[in-house]
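Sequence only, no structure available. Ideas?
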Amino acid sequence: MGISLMLLATVAFAAPDFMQTAELRDVRLQGWPGRKLGNLIHERCTGEHARSEVFGEARRAFIDRDDDLIFEENGKKHYIGGKWRGEFWGKLMVSSARVADYLNDAEYKNWIVAECHRLMATADKDGCISSYTKADNVVITRPASFTGWATCWNLWNRKYAMWGLLMAYRTTGNKSLLAEVMKQMDIEMEHIRKSGVTIAETGDQCGMASMSVLKPLLMLYADCGEKRYLDFATSIVNRWKGPNAHIPAFFENVKSGKPLHTWYPKPEKWAKSYEMMSCLDGLLEYYRVTGSRECLETVKKIRDDLAVSEANPFGTVGFGDKFIGAAGYLNGLNEVCDVIHWIRLNIDLFLITGEDKYMDSVELAYYNGYLAGVYRKGDWGPFFLRGHGRHQCQYQIGYGHNQCCVNNLPRTFMDVASATVTRDRNGVFHVNMFHDATVTIDGVRFEISGNYPVNSEVTVKVSDPKAKVVFRKPAWCPQLSQPSQPSQLSQLSFSMHPRLVERKIDNLEQNKKDSKLWAYSRYPDQFWIKELNRDVRHSYRTQPAAEVMWGPLVLCKSWRTGWKRAELANVDSVYGKGYSVKVTPKKGAADCSVWGMWEVELSKPGAPTIRATACDFQSGSDMPVTEDFLDSDFFTIWF
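Reply:
I predicted one. Tokens follow.
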């Protein structure tokens, strides 16, 4: 039986959430997303390969301890920073612990505990679990000009290891895991004290990587009640306040009302997307624990800015893992970790406030950027999403079974599953997601079916006729037909509102000399096929274009629906030409191995009608290129 947060926590929230989620063991995702989840769970969490090879390689980072960058001078070793292999185990365990909750499988939970103890056995003589030989090295001691880059991911790696152990404790109730997290957090606090600098001056990305420990730190405080952890958290929060606030100075800069990417020069150097959103998640946890309205309101304002200034073609935010004003960039490039953390941030805000706009953002990101980031076999996924050509896949820093985004993937399925149906503090049930699923919450069972959003009709069965139920009306939907009094059997009909979304190209994007184009050349095709390891700037559009939406789905033209690579490379567009769009569901999706298929008609008076067979973006692009078929992943979202 799963152990709930409330059973384990010893500190009550000062600001309890407005929404209560279902226990993961009482939720099952079905349909296309459910099948993807099943494959992902087996390949990345529960299967023999996952347990032995994937976890084994991730754990090896703490055995080999070779994440350090070492410079030798006059026979003396200087530890000058390092790499991030040590993040993989923690990300994988955070995901797997939540999967263990979902499956509620006693054998797998026992395995989770055993794997945690295998990690704990890698501790050095001082008791520290680290992927760095010099475990107390928490600062960058040489400039980038000296090494070619300047990073120190030691505290970031250790954060994830602690978080993984903490989530395993919450899943299994094994108190040795909680004791280990407390021990590791105490060691971290001591290492920072001995370094002579603040946590804001450690790690990378203006300290945000290290400071993102805020969320698991506060979760630890909630579980054990030790005030020193709350004091440490408060010291982190205070670093972003006042006249001498440290970059990005959330509390000070948000007062300006200016877009986040304008806060400092060269945001491509500091505005690292998912590290920053991890810190924002920490501020929300601080609000929960302390009731600080300043933290909540600051995060809400930043989130609202990101939803506008950083909106990209995949329904998510950011460009090339940075916040650089992505709304002005047609050629989307989105790290899947950014999608994952954008969803997480919005779910947290929804649970805290109950405002539907946050679930609107979750829906767009989930059906497009996130599901496109999960390969249908479940064994891997892209590092970066693109809107044209192919997504970018790569292995990282010498490992073949672990990658930062892939290890995070199962966690998002769990986040979305838990938020599918919620109950507010007034006792009203909210159906927030309409994918095929079963959810039992507070003894009331919900059965959601209809193959949404490929189809527009949804049936919701509710076991208790007395339950008060409301359905979220998506922001994109002009009309949601539903019973005036929801009953045990509610039929919903969504107006899917087919539409052209025109995207122009910012002047900065057109300027090839502009530094904001760093991501174009930094991320070429990288996978196991040598022929594809090349610059991909030739495939970026230089003229505006339009994408087609069906409800929350971005549609694409894909080789799966019969398009040839040469046809997909055509740069002609209906952008700005006064075309209207009609989208009609089309049979044959299963034959093309896509989730949904549509006939798109683009027309205007006096011009020939343009017709295109399209599918949903995620299933038209959710497999890697193979050596025997180099066009197997070619697609475009542009019309």
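The CA atoms of residues 48 and 609 lie 53 Å apart.
Hope that gets you unstuck.
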